[in-house]
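Example protein as discussed:

>
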Amino acid sequence: MRTYPNPHAKSDMEREASRPMLSRYALSVVLIVLVLGGGLEMLALWWLQTPAARVANLSEELIMAAQLTGLVGGYLLLIEVALMARLPWLERRIGSWLASLHRYLGGYLMMLLTMHVALVLTGYSLSLGAPVSTVLMGVLQTYPDVLIATIAYLLLLGLGLSSIKKFRRKLGYERWHAVHLVAYPAGVLAFGHEIAMGAQFTRNAFARDGWTLVNLAVAAAVLTHRFYLPLKRHVRHRLKISHIVAEAPDTISIYITGVDIDELNAQGGQYFRWRFLARGVWFQTHPFSLSAHPTENTLRLTVKGVGAYTRRLKRRLRPGQRVLADGPYGAFTAYLRRRRRVLLIGGGVGVTPLRAIAETLDGNERDVIFAQRASTEHDLLMVDELRRMQRQGKLTFLPVLGKRGKNPRDDPMHPARLREAIPDLREREVFICGSPGMVAATIKNLRRAGVRRTYIHSELFDF
């Protein structure tokens, strides 16, 4: 099979030189240790600022417990906001893991804040011998900072409810994303309450000043990376739609041109949050992965009309329209590869980032199989491009067609079928992208087929 040089590929020496000192796993462990360490510091602050004489009865114990849950809850809220800053040096290394951590901590945050409210009201109700409702109305009327904290709690409660899978699906991505933005004002309101009424901060000027500096640092990171830098990149690169290509009746590829796009340092497999300045869609931002490796002045994304927004894009977009792009984000790139033999498995629009990753793997040095999962041949995407890459010796294209069926052995991705189609499966590094169900099922089958989990990388097309 004749092969051709790949201008986007890097040699093993270049890849090793560009690898960070800490692996993804090691960096994740370091971050977890730092988060836990910060939590222990908050616990120590509470312990040192809580005189034993204060804990004399049940009401005092409840109030002290309320202070602890409020302190740790405020810390978790700060961590959640910090994760929303999307720091590039973390995003490029452990992007999907950060999103998972954000979702994981969110549940504990709401639990702690709810406990804080319940413990405060119950403790003062016992202390004053008054009903909880009377205590609540009294503190709201007497202490403005409590009213501010109540507003912050209600905003965060709404945010937490919107993140429950059942409600999230009904809201849709755009409404869900808009609701998530309330975390910013809620964080500001919560900080005001903590400084004004948090016993650990009102009694300890050093702790108050330190907490203020940490909050200011997080605020600066958010303002810089979520607002200032995207605006600066927009002015610098002047992105606009060059042309649009119909890949299938319900799928289009959008080519974006601009000035010095290579300065974005985007890699195949990463994504941007796109805002197309066209009628009917300009007010929405959506994440789409790059479907080709970026060139000096061109980016490409491929969109399938699976919802109201994506179908509207096909009707509204025209060449020459301006585009705002926030990114690149994500660590799902060829830099994760450690083995010579690679298997790429994509389903639906999950094919697009894998197509871009495949472009960065040199067929001269790599043994690359691109497996595309689909029910029928009609459902396959980017077939012409993948077959052209196969003719050029860059990969082997393997359509995996058929429905799963009731019998597990009828599944085209059954472990036995995978081993039959790819005899050296256990020796390959695997990249998977698709819907949550598709990715979970594929990982399960790969593990049963003998592929080690450490050599399986996945990206979910979900929110």
